[in-house]
Specification:
The structure is a homotrimer.
Chain A: H1 3-26, H2 29-34, E1 36-43, E2 57-59, H3 61-72, E3 76-90, E4 93-105, E5 114-128, E6 131-147
Parallel strand pairs in A: 1-6
Antiparallel strand pairs in A: 1-2, 3-4, 4-5, 5-6
Chain lengths: 154, 154, 154
C-alpha cells in the first residue's frame, strides 16, 4: 500500500470506532451491529463477574449487540476513545489500541448508581466487501470507580 | 478529490475544531471568532432555558463570539472533543460529528457551582479563500450533571 | 514535503504521543523512555512546588523517565490527550499542542488522595534515524482539583 492508501485505511478505521462509540451511547443498535464483522469476537471478561469459562466473551455481530444492549440498553452511558494507535498490517487487516473512559448512570432500581472507568481497547479490524469492520475487541482496565445505590434507610 | 486531498481536508478540519476548543478554554476570543465563517450559525438551544423562539441560536462569527463570551468568559471551562467523523462532501464543504465533554466551574456568585456535561457536536464546514471554517454547529446532550451553589445557611 | 508525506508525519507523531500516554499509564518505562529524544527536555515546573530555579525541568530521556517514575510510578494514573494541533515545520521537525486531562489516585500513605487536572501540552518533535521522537514538552494547566488525604481523626 502506498502512504495515502495506508492513511486512508487508518482514517476509515478511526471513523469506524467513532461510530462504535456514538451508536453505543445514542442506543442506535442497528448502527452498532453494523460496525462489527458478522463473526466478530468481543472479550469483556474483565467486566463480568463470575467464574464460568467464557463469561463475558461473545461471538457474532448480532450476539454482541444483544449482549451489550442487555447490559447497558437502559443505562445512560458515555464512552470516549482517545489517541488511537492503528497499525495497518495488510490491505485488509489492521490492529488498534485506544485509550478509553466510560461513565455510566443506572436508572432507579439498577445494581449501581454510577460507574466511572478508564482503560484500553485492543482491537483487530478486517476489510471485507470494501468496508472496514471490527473483527475483535478486548477491554482492559486501568481503574474503575463505582458509586453504590443508596440504601433506603440511609 | 484524490485520497490525499480528502485526507488533507479532514486533518485541516480536525485542527480547526481543535482551535475552537483551545481558544474557548484559554479565552482567546480573537482566535475563537476566527474559526467561524462570517455568517456561521450556532445552535445552543438545548443549553438555554426559555421558551422564546430562537433562544440559544446565534448567527455571525462576531455575534457567536459575543454570545459565548457572555456565557462563559468568566467561567473556568474545559471542553474536549473526541472521535471526529468528518465527511468531505465537496472540495469546499464538509460535515462532522464530534463526541464532547465539558466541565465548567463558576466563580463565587455564579448561578451554579459546577456543570459537567457530555454530548455531540453536529457541524458543517466550508472552505472559503483557501481556509476551512465552521459554518454551523449544533450541540446535543447525552447527560448533564450540575452542582448547585451551596446555600449561605448550609 | 508533498501532502501525503506531511500527513504521514502527522499520523506518526499522533501515535508517538499515544505511546507516551499508554506507556505512562501502564508503567511501561522502557517504552516511555523510547518516545523521547536522548536530549529531550520536559518542563513540568508548573507541577512542582518550590522556588529553586529549574525545579520541574528535566533533560535527557533517561532522566525524564526517572523523574516521572519517581513521581507517579506507584500512583494509579490516567492521562488522556485530545485534539492535537500538529504543525510539520520541516521534514525532520514539528510542533504540537494537545488538550489533556489527568486523573491520579495515590495508594494509602500518599501525599494526596486524588488529583484531577486539565491543561495543554506544548511539544516539539524531531525525526532522527527515521523515527519521530518528543524533543521537548511543557505542560500548562486550565484547572487542577485535589482531594486531600482524610485525616486519621476524621
Amino acid at each position: 500500500m502506498d502512504p495515502a492508501q495506508r492513511l486512508e485505511a487508518i482514517e476509515e478505521i478511526k471513523q469506524l470506532k467513532a461510530r462504535y462509540f456514538r451508536c453505543l451511547d445514542t442506543k442506535d443498535w442497528d448502527g452498532f451491529a453494523d460496525v462489527f464483522a458478522s463473526d466478530a469476537r468481543m472479550d469483556m471478561s474483565g467486566e463480568v463477574k463470575g467464574d464460568e469459562p467464557g463469561a463475558g466473551i461473545t461471538t457474532g455481530s448480532r450476539e454482541i449487540t444483544e449482549f451489550v444492549r442487555a447490559m447497558v440498553g437502559h443505562v445512560t452511558t458515555v464512552h470516549h476513545g482517545h489517541t488511537p494507535e492503528i497499525d495497518v498490517t495488510s490491505p485488509t487487516t489492521a490492529t488498534g489500541m485506544w485509550a478509553m473512559e466510560d461513565t455510566l448512570r443506572w436508572p432507579d432500581g439498577g445494581p449501581l448508581a454510577t460507574m466511572h472507568g478508564y482503560g484500553h481497547y485492543h482491537d483487530t479490524y478486517e476489510k471485507r466487501d470494501g468496508r472496514w469492520r471490527i473483527a475483535s475487541t478486548t477491554l482492559t482496565r486501568l481503574r474503575v470507580d463505582v458509586e453504590a445505590v443508596p440504601r433506603p434507610d440511609a
